Amino acid sequence: MPVQVTPAAEADGVVDEDEWDEAEADEDRDIFHCFTQDYPTPADAVRAARSGEKVEWHGRIEGGLMRHRVLADGDPVVEQAVFMDGFLASAACCGWIQAEDRAEAERGILTTLTELHDICRPVLEAEIRAARPGYRARHLHAFSEAAVDTPLRFPRFGLRTTYAAREVAVWEQTRDPATWNMALSFASFLGFDEKIPELTRDALTARLQRNGVPVNRCARCGVPLTNRHPRWNGVWTWPIAEIGTLCEVPSDVNDHDGVYMFSDGDFGYPHQPEPSI
Ligand SMILES: [Zn+2]
Q1: How many angstroms separate the alpha carbon of residue 86 from the centre of ligand 1?
Q2: From ligand 1's centre to the CA of 201, what distance in Å?
Q3: Which of 22, 89, 127, 226 could be stapled to 84 by a disulfide with Cβ–Cβ 3.0 to 4.6 Å?
Q4: ipTM more than 0.90?
Q5: What is the CA radius of gyration of the chain?
Q6: Nearest CA among 228, 245, 205, 211 for reference residue 89
Q7: Are strands 77-83 and 246-247 parallel, antiparallel or unpaired?
Q8: pLDDT in tens, 246-271
Q9: How many A from CA of 227 to the centre of ligand 1?
């Protein structure tokens, strides 16, 4: 792993830190374990794909959403893809739902991803060059895929590169570390916005808006909002279930001070979309 990052803090209290680090390390070694057990080399995977098998691995590693698969139509390739994530993904999703013209919003999201790639790629490449002089990061292309399994039909967006299967002998040649880190840079909680200012929430919002994606945010708590979700028509919400329609409020509202349980404050507050849009 070229970049040391803190794993998502999801350990439940019972696991001590050493055990947790060990579990993380095992997980890293086993990233493609099932995949490479079935297909020891890319050539094995291509043979399987040609005979009609779906050769695909996807998951979240160290907080980054990624996918590996073999496309066997024509000249077979191994595809390495990373997906949009974090604040960027929820802002894009809410903006896309709000848009009068969703095709235009989709193009705007793709443009945004292309621009962010051009900004992040040299930074990520330079980091890896510190350990691997002469290293060159892959150039990635923004893509969107139709989501067929949900009524919302919000497309999946990401960046990808492909490797001609005949040019790679081992899986290691199909795992570009800067591409990997591109996925991590989209996961808001990892702090990549501290070294790449274009990844801050305000900068991402402004860029999406410039590119024709009508992102609304809450004036009070700052989350991206939509009031056009089909199940929440007219209600401002965002796609994080624990929060959804409920704006963050001062914690003393929940402090009942030993008196009667329910008061006005228990109903919480709705989000307040910024008036400008
Ligand atoms: Zn709010």
Answers
A1: 17
A2: 15
A3: 89
A4: no
A5: 21
A6: 205
A7: unpaired
A8: 997 666 655 666 667 777 777 888 99
A9: 13
Q: What is the pLDDT of residues 179-231, one digit of tens each?
A: 999 988 988 777 888 889 999 999 999 999 999 999 999 999 999 999 999 89
Token pair, residue 127, equals 């980091």
pLDDT value for 8:
38
DSSP class of 273: B
Helix (H) or strand (E) holding 247: strand 246-247
CA of 32 to the centre of ligand 1 (A): 39
For residue 205, the CA-to-ligand 1 centroid distance in Å is 15
Nearest 5°: phi and psi at 15?
Answer: -85, 125
Predicted pLDDT at 258: 65
**Ligand 1 centroid vs 209 CA: distance in angstroms?**
19
Decide: 120 and 185 in contact? Cβ < 8 Å: yes
Q: Residue 105 and residue 111: Cα distance in Å, rounded?
A: 10
Output the six-digit token pair for 182.
């591109």
What is the distance in A from the centroid of ligand 1 to the CA of 270? Answer: 7
Low-confidence ranges of the chain (pLDDT < 70): 1-32, 249-259, 276-277
Hey, is 128 helix, strand or coil?
Answer: helix
CA of 272 to the centre of ligand 1 (A): 6
